[in-house]
Design a protein that fits this description.
By secondary structure, the chain is of the alpha/beta class. The protein contains twelve helices and eleven strands. It has helices spanning 54-62, 88-92, 106-109, 116-126, 132-145, 151-155, 164-176, 194-211, 222-226, 246-251, 256-263, 305-309, and strands spanning 10-19, 28-38, 43-47, 69-72, 75-78, 81-82, 99-102, 182-186, 214-218, 231-236, 239-245. Strands 7-8-9-3-10-11 form a six-stranded mixed sheet, sandwiched between helices. A hairpin with a 2-residue loop joins β10 and β11. The longest helix is centred in the middle third of the chain and has 18 residues, at 194-211. The two termini are 39 Å apart. The protein binds adenosine-5'-triphosphate and magnesium ion (MG). The site of adenosine-5'-triphosphate has 13 residues, from α1.
Length: 325
């Protein structure tokens, strides 16, 4: 018997995004030729320094960007349904139900005036059409599932009574209320200390397996994401510069930027830097100061004349004219 091919959960093909409007006298090209897929039940790690376009990629897909945005794409589809990113309604039916999002600072995402239990019950009564008693039972189950101790007690607490790690667990529990197929976690642990960080990421990985959920895990820490992601996509200045299976990408980075990110990590996530710990000199260029040619060229240790002559195409999942071997 032929094995059934797995259906792609989310596909984005050649997405370009521009900011325009009264604040900018010309269009700012923020994302360029963004193409990626998320398969059922996998964790896709997205890394890159601040300003590389990680968040706006996800926000664009979710239809959550401000009005002064222009989006072009060849194809975007979710669970087999084509999505028109320029039509607000198109993605709305998936958002908050089949696709859930958690953010960096859980405290700002929770309503400070409402008890935790109430906030968990709301999506259950609204989206899942449960009665109040069913919703309460399910909310407490979800709190248990995400490792919240004494859930009955926590149910009646306000957000300020929770620690940051606990609040992020509540956010994750909330994101699970509608049994999403995809969880987008944008820097979910940046506001937390290191031990709590690992607990939350372990929880996300655990849920991926148990709930057969796909996860887009955004972070600027390549070493950290390497422990959790099945595949990794590296972004720089609004482009995907390299993507691949986690092990391949970590052990054998092809793009100088990926290598530089790995070298700037103390342990390098399994990657043993040959030289001493380095920091990448320079910064991600601003949208109105993008260089011609390869975006990373001004900071690249291997830069040659041809790098600045023209923009490198993505070849074998690497956007570099002279990939590392
Ligand atoms: N509404 C907006 N108008 C104009 N430019 C914007 C807007 N939102 C984001 N940008 C710009 O788009 C680029 C990408 O931003 P984005 O927030 O996606 O970066 P990021 O990779 O998520 O960074 P971080 O790690 O800091 O979260 C940045 O140069 C940012 O300044
Ligand atoms: Mg961001």
């Amino acid at each position: 018997m032929m094995e059934k091919t797995q259906e792609t959960l989310l596909e984005v093909k050649n997405l370009d995004l521009y900011f325009h409007g009264p604040l900018h006298n010309h269009d700012l090209h923020a994302l360029r030729e963004i193409s990626f897929k998320v398969m059922p039940g996998e964790i896709l790690g997205v890394v890159g320094e601040s300003g590389s376009g990680k968040s706006i990629t996800n926000l664009a897909v979710m239809g959550l960007l401000p009005k002064e945005t222009k989006i072009q794409s060849e194809k975007v589809s979710f669970a087999g349904t084509a999505i028109d990113l320029n039509n607000e309604k198109s993605f709305k039916r998936f958002r908050g139900t089949e696709v859930a999002m958690i953010f960096q600072d859980p405290m700002t995402a929770l309503n400070p005036f409402l008890k935790v239990g109430y906030q968990l019950m709301e999506p259950l009564t609204i989206h899942m059409k449960m009665s109040r008693s069913e919703a309460k039972k399910r909310a407490i189950e979800l709190m248990e599932k995400v490792g919240i101790s004494s859930p009955d007690k926590r149910f009646d607490q306000y957000p300020f009574e929770l620690s940051g790690g606990m609040a992020q667990r509540v956010m994750i529990a909330m994101s699970l209320t509608t049994n999403p197929k995809l969880l987008i976690a944008d820097e979910p642990t940046t506001a937390l200390d290191v031990t709590i960080q690992k607990q939350i990421l372990n929880l996300i990985k655990d849920l991926k397996v148990k709930e057969k959920m796909s996860v887009i895990l955004v972070t600027h820490d390549l070493g950290l994401v390497a422990e959790y992601a099945d595949r990794i996509q590296v972004m720089y200045a609004g482009e995907i510069v390299e993507s691949g299976k986690t092990k391949d990408l970590i052990e054998n980075p092809k793009h100088p930027y990926t290598e530089a990110l790995l070298k700037s990590r103390p342990e390098g996530g399994g990657f043993k830097p040959k030289e001493n710990l380095l920091t990448i000199s320079g910064v991600v260029p601003m949208l109105n100061q993008r260089p011609g040619g390869c975006q990373f060229a001004p900071r690249c240790a291997y830069v040659e004349e041809k790098c600045t002559a023209k923009t490198p195409e993505l070849v074998n999942n690497v956007r570099c004219v002279k990939p590392l071997s």
